[in-house]
Amino acid sequence: MGRGKIEIKRIENDTNRQVTYSKRRNGIFKKAQELTVLCDAKVSLIMFSSTGKLHEFISPSTTTKKTFDLYQQAMGIDLWSTHYEKMQETLRKLKDINNKLRREIRQRMGDDLEYLSVEELRGLEQKMTSSVEIVRERKYHVIKTQTDTCKKKVKNLEQVHGNLLLHFEAKCEDPQYGIVDNEGEESAVALANGASNLYALGLHHHAHHPSLHHGGGFGSQLRLA
């Protein structure tokens, strides 16, 4: 049995439609290549898929532009004239807009005011006043933002300073670091002075009682004293 005839209508399934497009596109490109080789024909194919993707085949001996030129010569029409006229019209509009903007800039700088009427001068004045207000608001916003940033930095520095003070005070109160306050220092000095006085008294007593030399050392001398 032969293959059944396929009904020519739009394929609803997206995947099947894309697969069929790819297969038939390759088949058309193959036929175009065969025409180019067998018949020395100049073939140009331009195809767009349903997703907008471009596929084209051009004979090796030509280009798309040459194909369009041959088409225009054969049909006696100009495909580019209408497009060129539209481009020229767009260019003229852009030039007018550019000249208007340049003139407005010069007028805001105080130049090119000779031919302006009173109404035009009043309108220019209002525009400049509005612009100044916008610039002033922006300036105040920038100043406020910078001020707030500086305040945050100062606050952070004060917090860091406070934390360092608390950390230092905690170390001062910790005996393992050997750091004492003024009162502790005074007690230590007094204790050292007392020990010196006791040592001096022991030496003086030993000088007046030589018989105590064999009495058992400096500790005994202190006890006898």
UniProtKB/TrEMBL annotation:
One of its GO terms (biological process) is floral organ development. Residues 1-61 form the MADS-box domain. Residues 84-174 form the K-box domain. It is found in: Nucleus. The keyword DNA repair does not apply. GO terms for molecular function: DNA-binding transcription factor activity; protein dimerization activity; RNA polymerase II transcription regulatory region sequence-specific DNA binding. Transmembrane segments: none annotated. GO terms for cellular component: nucleus. Gene3D superfamilies: Transcription factor, MADS-box (3.40.1810.10). Keywords: DNA-binding, Flowering, Nucleus, Transcription, Transcription regulation. InterPro entries: MADS-box/MEF2_TF, MEF2-like_N, TF_Kbox, TF_MADSbox, TF_MADSbox_sf. It comes from the Eukaryota. Pfam families: K-box, SRF-TF. This is Uncharacterized protein. It comes from Erythroxylum novogranatense.
